[in-house]
Specification:
79% helix
């Protein structure tokens, strides 16, 4: 726009300078009228005065500000003023009197009652609010969310329902394992992208909701007691995972961020811990994807193998619940293994213990991410002093890191312990809500299976996989060892 303004002024000045006959005088008058109707007239006049009368720097700055304000008033594609200047230039340079008619034609909109520049500015004002057509009401946003989410949720439901009945028929396997297997089989085939949003929603939000519903079948005092009893095992397994990941990092020479994410994901809660930690340590997307793939691989293996291993070791219900809750990486696989065990033995003790222990372990996200944030701040400060990097934020956000579904789980346990008996609600309601939670586990496991890409897992590379295997085996061994030492089974 500035270039076009300069061209406009240069053409006008050249036309005035070269006018030597009456026709040119008439053209000058017409050109002056066109120039005055332009949004740049005020700016051009001020700059002409400035050329004739030198001004101080302060006055020059004021004139420049006025020019900026005037230029904002017109769009870049404004054609009328520029066309008027172009038609004025051609006759002026050739000496033809036709310039009068051409300039007069540029004034026709003004004579008809609507100035050309005024019309252009009005159009500019009408299009200056791009947000107006983009505004959506609450119901429109809800409808848009439903269109994106429902198809994927329906697909997961179509897998979960038959998996639920197959799990009842074959309790040794259980609904969760059936749902994962069916989902993994379907994942081999390409699916439409519009299913992804609903599948992601099911794997995260429905899984968290299933844990909350399980809380309606638990006693709050049992939750507190089991969480306290498992605290030593949880601390032991977290320390073991972080130590093993550091040792494997030194041996295998893997990227530091991958080692950190695999260690944190193995010790706390799998993908959720990785998602919370990655912005703190500024991990790359490729490093996050690699770490999640490794963790997910051993999650699926654990969901299949832990119940059989527990049976072979002769574990009690509480012992298996403690072991699954402390040794399996992700919450989804913990509840899947617990449900498989519950299907085999015919009671929910192991499932409840595994869920409580896992949720207690999940709270370790907060101190771990805080510690990593402090360490990153120290590293950034040292790097800034050394001049090698600029110090920046750590990316820690308590609201995003905190596992809020744990709070809702505790609220559900409180409601089941005190509120339901106080208002006369029987155990049949608690049993129904708890059973709904179990079905929602199979629902979420279907989404987990659909998100499993075996080919991608293989392409991850052997070093991160070997690191994840070492962390997983050591955590499982330490968990069993501490339980034996404490006489828990």
């Amino acid at each position: 726009m500035k270039r076009e303004k300069k061209e406009f002024r240069a053409k006008a000045a050249a036309a005035e300078k070269e006018m030597k006959n009456p026709a040119e005088t008439e053209a000058a008058a017409a050109l002056s009228a066109a120039e005055k109707s332009s949004p740049y007239a005020a700016v051009a006049e001020k700059e002409t005065e400035q050329a004739a009368n030198p001004v101080t720097p302060a006055e020059a700055e004021q004139i420049g500000a006025a020019a900026s304000k005037a230029s904002v008033a017109a769009e870049e594609n404004t054609a009328a003023p520029h066309e008027a200047a172009e038609t004025a230039e051609q006759p002026a340079s050739s000496g033809q009197p036709a310039v009068t008619e051409q300039l007069a034609s540029s004034e026709q909109p003004a004579r008809s009652g609507q100035p050309a520049d005024s019309a252009l500015l009005t159009a500019t004002e009408q299009s200056a609010d791009p947000e107006q057509p983009q505004k959506q009401g609450v119901w429109q946003r809800i409808w848009g969310w439903l269109k994106r989410t429902v198809p994927g949720v329906v697909l997961c439901a179509l897998i979960a329902v038959p998996s639920w009945f197959l799990g009842k028929l074959v309790p040794v396997i259980g609904p969760a394992v059936f749902a994962i297997v069916i989902g993994m089989i379907i994942a081999f085939f390409r699916r439409p992208k519009w299913l992804d949003a609903g599948i992601r929603f099911t794997s995260k939000k429905v899984l968290q909701a299933s844990i909350v519903f399980l809380g309606f079948g638990m006693n709050f005092f049992t939750v507190v007691q089991v969480g306290g009893d498992s605290l030593l095992i949880i601390l032991s397994t977290i320390a073991t995972s972080l130590l093993v990941s550091f040792i494997m990092y030194k041996i295998l020479k893997t990227p530091a961020n991958v080692a950190t994410l695999v260690g944190v994901g193995s010790s706390i809660c799998g993908g959720s811990a990785i998602a919370a930690t990655s912005p703190v340590i500024r991990a790359k997307d490729s490093e996050v994807a690699t770490s999640i793939s490794v963790i997910f691989l051993f999650n699926v293996i654990a969901a299949f193998t832990f119940p059989a291993i527990g049976q072979a070791l002769g574990m009690s219900d509480t012992g298996f619940g403690m072991w699954a809750g402390t040794a399996i990486n992700d919450t989804s696989s913990v509840v899947a293994a617990g449900q498989s065990w519950a299907s085999m033995v015919g009671n929910d003790t192991a499932l409840q213990y595994a869920t409580i222990v896992k949720l207690t372990r999940t709270l370790a996200i907060i101190p771990i991410t805080l510690a990593l944030a402090l360490w990153q701040a120290i590293k950034a400060k040292r790097a800034a002093k050394a001049g090698t990097a600029a110090a920046g934020g750590t990316g820690f956000n308590f609201v995003k890191v905190f596992p809020w579904f744990v709070i809702f789980f505790l609220v559900a346990a409180v409601v089941n312990t005190w509120l339901f008996p106080a208002v006369g609600i029987g155990e049949n309601v608690s049993d129904f809500l708890s059973e709904a939670g179990k079905f929602m586990i199979a629902f979420a496991m279907a989404a987990i299976g659909l998100n499993t890409n075996v080919v991608k897992l293989v392409k991850t590379g052997w070093k991160p996989i070997l690191m994840g295997l070492a962390c997983w085996v050591c955590i499982a061994g330490v968990s069993i060892g501490v339980q034996v030492a404490l006489g828990l089974w």
